[in-house]
Write a structure and sequence with these properties.
- With 124 residues, this protein is an all-beta fold.
- Helices cover 0% and strands 49% of the residues.
- The chain has no helices and eleven strands.
- Strands 2, 4, 5, 6, 9, 10 and 11 form a seven-stranded mixed β-sheet that branches. It has a four-stranded antiparallel β-sheet with strand order 1-3-8-7, with no helix packed on it.
- The protein is globular, with a radius of gyration of 13 Å.
């Protein structure tokens, strides 16, 4: 059974930083894309960032580019999201995602596995 376990969420003031982690287990994820989505209250789930297996292909939501950095450690089946210069509009539940695709895709409908979500709250 596939499990994605997220950690690192919390409450932070605007301008602060958080680092999210997501550890995957239950099958081999060799070659596949991992990423992060988020969902704020009353809004649809949106793509935040994704990274290919090699790490050579990374995509970001325009509003987080330059502030967020996605990375992965394939030996640990773990993906990270370093979030700097956080803004109140970044407040949401953040979900780890695995897409069994060799190319990076940003559509939440193609995600094969989801984590349980971790709350990120940025106060002004």
């Amino acid at each position: 059974q596939v499990q994605l376990v997220e950690s690192g969420g919390g409450l932070v003031q605007a301008g602060g930083s958080l680092r999210l982690s997501c550890a995957a287990s239950g099958r081999t994820f060799s070659g596949y894309t991992m990423g992060w989505f988020r969902q704020a209250p009353g809004k649809e789930r949106e793509f935040v960032a994704a990274i290919s297996w090699s790490g050579g292909d990374r995509h970001y939501l325009a509003s987080v580019k330059g502030r967020f950095t996605i990375s992965r450690d394939n030996a640990k089946n773990t993906v990270y999201l370093q979030m700097n210069s956080l803004k109140p509009e970044d407040t949401a539940v953040y979900y780890c995602a695995v897409d069994l695709s060799l190319i990076v895709r940003t559509d939440p409908r193609v995600v094969d596995y989801w984590g349980q979500g971790t709350q990120v709250t940025v106060s002004s």
